[in-house]
Description:
InterPro entries: Chalcone_isomerase (IPR016087), Chalcone_isomerase_3-sand (IPR016088), Chalcone_isomerase_bundle_sf (IPR016089), Chalcone_isomerase_sf (IPR036298). Belongs to the chalcone isomerase family. The chain has helices at about 75-80, 85, 100-110, 120-130, 175-185, 190-205; strands at about 5, 10-15, 20, 25, 35-45, 50-60, 90-95, 145-150, 155-160, 170. By secondary structure, it is of the alpha+beta class. It has a single domain, classed as Chalcone isomerase, CATH 3.50.70. It has a 7-stranded antiparallel beta sheet. A hairpin with a 4-residue loop joins strand 2 and strand 3 (about 20). The longest helix is centred in the last third of the chain and has 14 residues, at about 190-205. The mean pLDDT is about 80.
Amino acid sequence: MEKVEIGSAEYIEEPSTNVKFQTSLTLPECSSPLSLLGTGYREKVFAIIGVKVYAAGLYLNQSISNKLNAWKGRSATEIQGDSSLFDSIFRIVLVRDVDGKTFWDALDEAISPRIKAPSPVDVSALSTFRSIFQGRSLRKGTFIFLTWMEPSKMLVCISSDGLPSSVDATIKSMNVTMVLFDVFFGNSPVSPSLKASVANGLATVLK
């Protein structure tokens, strides 16, 4: 990943969408800086034409790097093929550039089939998640941050002007948060380019 400097900050550009991601950032309720590991994009097909819906970047909380020692020396191919590594990383942030309706529709399309029998807690969490985007105008360039604080807790922050200063919603459901994680980093990710890029980033970090 090639770095570019804008002002005092370093960025990496996702090549297919030209969206730039800061290499390091700090978010509300995250005490440690987050480091960018990889970028990718989600593409959907409309009338046989592939349309890039959003760009995404995965950030790793530096405080959990000691948990990854067992993976030192593994290649990017080995890392990408073993989802248990991704399952051990919960404090991450996905950054997307997308309008609210398209963003939720794309997420719901991937989440719903993975939750076969949603519990009342799951239904409530999905309702909270959905309500964040309903009736909300998200212009091009808006950032949506999803931060896994622990397996059953995810923070959602939305910002149209730089990094967010507050949390918009807290999602508390083990099924919803883990299924959403699986959507991006499981065996059948919606953005293979993101998972592949993250695997390369991790392989570099773990050398």
